């Protein structure tokens, strides 16, 4: 494929009112694989992530300047359809947030929103998405039951299935395992690794072991700037910057 870059970001600045949170970020993100966004609390990781599918628009005080290109198109240009951008660039949040609906209706929600009405087609998308999120075997006999009847880890995989149902290219994940127990975390990590063969996954994590286990590349943020962006293995074995080393070895954060 010609354009291997999914995102190309130049001189990105984001502020909330007078507080500057992202201060001149440049980063290119390639197709497929897992990119971990790491850095201490408050350094702007979630803000950066939310800017990539314009979820940041929901915060009135937020102001975004600079260029974010998704597949070569400026996502902040007036003629870009946000609904289409969010179809391509899905999001999974820290706490599982299924809708108060059945398992089936949670997954069918996005496709219905985009106009799919045919029952057989919806059935197929729901099954495929639940299989993609490694949840199908656990729920196939009870898809009409409430999403709230699932465990926390299952709910998070349901949210991943819901994101997959509209066939995105990119998944943004903001600490998707922080509310999960170790077993559910392992399952979601395995799922992320599996999905990274077909999707580009950009994940914010506080967990350095998790970043090392699942990501191909890592970007270290500090005070709204990217200090280092490299292959994860390299960053974790031979970081270029002393501040990166101090952070990943737990000297601060
Ligand atoms: N909705 C908001 N309104 C005003 N300020 C905000 C808002 N969201 C975040 N901030 C501020 O922006 C800064 C960066 O926050 P952000 O959540 O992006 O950091 P983070 O690196 O993801 O932190 P954490 O790891 O603790 O989640 C913080 O100082 C925070 O207080």
Automatic annotation (TrEMBL):
<keyword id="KW-0547">Nucleotide-binding</keyword>
<dbReference type="InterPro" id="IPR017871">
    <property type="entry name" value="ABC_transporter-like_CS"/>
</dbReference>
<dbReference type="GO" id="GO:0016020">
    <property type="term" value="C:membrane"/>
</dbReference>
<dbReference type="GO" id="GO:0005315">
    <property type="term" value="F:phosphate transmembrane transporter activity"/>
</dbReference>
<keyword id="KW-0813">Transport</keyword>
<dbReference type="InterPro" id="IPR005670">
    <property type="entry name" value="PstB-like"/>
</dbReference>
<dbReference type="GO" id="GO:0016887">
    <property type="term" value="F:ATP hydrolysis activity"/>
</dbReference>
<dbReference type="Pfam" id="PF00005">
    <property type="entry name" value="ABC_tran"/>
</dbReference>
<dbReference type="InterPro" id="IPR003593">
    <property type="entry name" value="AAA+_ATPase"/>
</dbReference>
<dbReference type="InterPro" id="IPR003439">
    <property type="entry name" value="ABC_transporter-like_ATP-bd"/>
</dbReference>
<dbReference type="GO" id="GO:0035435">
    <property type="term" value="P:phosphate ion transmembrane transport"/>
</dbReference>
<keyword id="KW-0067">ATP-binding</keyword>
<protein>
    <submittedName>
        <fullName>Phosphate ABC transporter ATP-binding protein PstB</fullName>
    </submittedName>
</protein>
<dbReference type="InterPro" id="IPR027417">
    <property type="entry name" value="P-loop_NTPase"/>
</dbReference>
<dbReference type="GO" id="GO:0005524">
    <property type="term" value="F:ATP binding"/>
</dbReference>
<feature type="domain" description="ABC transporter">
    <location>
        <begin position="7"/>
        <end position="248"/>
    </location>
</feature>
């Amino acid at each position: 494929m010609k354009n291997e870059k999914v995102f190309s970001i130049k001189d990105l600045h984001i502020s909330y009112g007078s507080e500057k949170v992202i201060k001149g970020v440049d980063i290119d993100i390639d197709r497929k694989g897992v990119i971990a966004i790491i850095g201490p609390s408050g350094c702007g990781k979630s803000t950066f992530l939310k800017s990539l599918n314009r979820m940041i628009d929901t915060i009135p005080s937020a102001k975004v300047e600079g260029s974010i290109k998704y597949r070569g198109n400026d996502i902040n240009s007036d003629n870009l359809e946000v609904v289409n951008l969010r179809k391509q660039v899905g999001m999974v949040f820290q706490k599982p947030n299924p809708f108060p609906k059945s398992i089936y209706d949670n997954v069918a929600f996005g496709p219905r929103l985009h106009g799919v009405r045919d029952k057989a087609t919806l059935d197929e998308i729901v099954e495929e998405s639940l299989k993609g999120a490694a949840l199908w075997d656990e729920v196939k006999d009870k898809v009409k039951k409430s999403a709230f009847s699932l465990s926390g880890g299952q709910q998070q995989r349901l949210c991943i299935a819901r994101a997959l149902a509209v066939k995105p290219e990119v998944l943004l994940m903001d600490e998707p395992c922080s509310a999960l127990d170790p077993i559910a975390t392992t399952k979601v990590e395995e799922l992320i690794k599996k999905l990274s063969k077909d999707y580009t996954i950009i994940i914010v994590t506080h967990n350095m072991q998790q970043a090392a286990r699942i990501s191909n590349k890592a970007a270290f943020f500090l005070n709204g700037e990217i200090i280092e962006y490299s292959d994860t293995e390299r960053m974790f074995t031979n970081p270029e910057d002393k501040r990166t080393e101090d952070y990943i070895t737990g000297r601060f954060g």
